[in-house]
Amino acid sequence: MKKLLRKWLTILIPLLIGMGIIYYQYSTLKPEEIEKIKISFQKANYYYILLSLVIATIGYWSRAYRWKFALNHLGYQTQFHNNFFTVSVSYLVNLTVPRSGEISRAALLKKYENVPFDKAFGTIVAERIVDLIIFLLFVLIGFISQFDAIYQFLLSKNISLQTIIYYALFAVLIGIVFLLIWIYAEWKIILKLKKKLSGLIEGMTTIFKMKKKWEYIFHSFFIWFSYLAMFYASIFALPETSNISFDVIIMGFIFGSLAVGFSNGGLGAYPFSIALIFSLYGISNDVGTAYGWLVWTSQTVLTILLGLISYVLLPVFNSNK
Question: At what angle do helices 117-145 and 147-156 cross, to 10 degrees?
């Protein structure tokens, strides 16, 4: 009886979580926004939406596969399906509270693979640092190639480029000062923090010491190219966006990624960002918004489905532990 109840709870709990997330995501939408979602889905070519979802799933696979290089370096031979399932669940959790998925990912790996939380979390932090560097490369390429369009946009919004540069330099300076203090300072509080965070630091520094660092770097770039390919494939889903140039796609991808990174899965912010960037290139606000909602909704559904399935399968695949 207890086993039967446990199996039902294993299925019901993630379903309830998924329903709660769906309700939470859509409860803040205005009626006109929901109407735009309906219109975009009615007009869409679902072959390209399906293609974008397949590409996105390959990105999940690559992220899970990349993780094993860091974990193996620390001496933990984790099973790939556990890596993939925990990554999928982390994306699902990120839809609620931004970046909370990283904590759940390390916690699940501790539960099913007995990897210490601090070390697992350290490898995840290292991943995010690498991801940030690669994303900044995209930003640099995009901003250099589209400088004139961006500059004119900033001027239209009464934002000085010089002010942005000052803020960016100030942020970099603060980061450098903090890094120097962390590396060279021998203050008691710094030494205590280093001791307590030793496992986290060990996980973060695996990239520099691992034998298969080039495979790790390859997958890091592959993950981001899969994100870009997913975005590119979706362009052909709507007739109004199917002919836009690749430079517009790059800028839309950059600002869409920023919207996702600074919100709970890009709710509301993603279509707004896409519409704003597309408008710089003469694409109507309605078309940009419809495309944004189409991409965001389809990717969110994929995230929820993969996350729920993975949450159910984790205990099934680890029933002998």
Answer: 90
Mark out the alpha helices in the chain (DSSP H runs).
2-27, 31-43, 46-73, 80-94, 100-113, 117-145, 147-156, 161-184, 188-196, 198-204, 206-209, 213-235, 246-261, 269-279, 285-317
pTM reported for the whole predicted model: 0.79
Nearest residue to 315 via CA among 92, 64, 7, 87:
7
pLDDT in tens, 195-212: 666 656 666 666 777 888
Give the SS3 label for residue 55.
helix
Alpha-carbon dihedral of residues 301, 304, 309, 315, nearest 10 degrees? 180
Q: Contact 115/109 with Cβ under 8 angstroms?
A: yes
Residue type, 197: L
Kindly report, residue by residue over 102-126, the tens digit of the pLDDT.
888 999 999 999 999 888 888 888 8
Interior CA angle at 85 toward 2 and 274, to 5°?
A: 130
Reduced to 3 states (helix: H, G, I; strand: E, B; else coil), residue 42 is: helix
Structure tokens at 248: 């517009």
